[in-house]
Specification:
mainly alpha, globular
């Protein structure tokens, strides 16, 4: 599991570098890959640290999707992040980091002003991100 986490960390670093360079299309592709890994890892281990990385990834993915005109994907990433943050608070109600992330996601939702969608797992192989160009 440690090797997978290092791979995800490397992907998130690359995503952040691409975002800083305003290479949103490439950042979106990296976020898609990282989110797939993080979904699987979180559901395998149910660790708070993995959830926080997943939420970070989904929030970034939503912004990248909106910036590149992929509004449905942005709404799905944001809605899924909100749902996971809410569920996470039921398991870890005293987590200030999780509460802060939820607040950040809710602020983004207010800015967007649209109804979000939630990605729901279907079966064992249900963690492929449903958006691809």
């Amino acid at each position: 599991m440690q090797n997978k986490m290092q791979t995800v960390d490397d992907l998130l670093i690359k995503r952040d570098e691409l975002t800083a360079l305003k290479r949103d299309e490439e950042a979106l592709q990296v976020s898609r890959r990282a989110s797939g890994e993080l979904f699987a890892m979180f559901h395998d281990e149910m660790q708070g640290e993995t959830l926080m990385k997943l939420l970070n990834c989904l929030q970034g993915l939503s912004v990248e999707a909106f910036l590149t005109g992929r509004n449905n994907e942005g709404l799905t990433a944001l809605g899924t992040a909100l749902a996971y943050a809410g569920a996470g608070l039921k398991h870890w109600p005293s987590s200030p980091a999780l509460l802060n992330r939820l607040n950040s996601l809710e602020e983004l939702e207010k800015k967007i002003g649209a109804r979000c969608t939630v990605l729901i797992r279907e079966g064992e192989d249900g963690w492929a991100w449903p958006f691809d160009d």
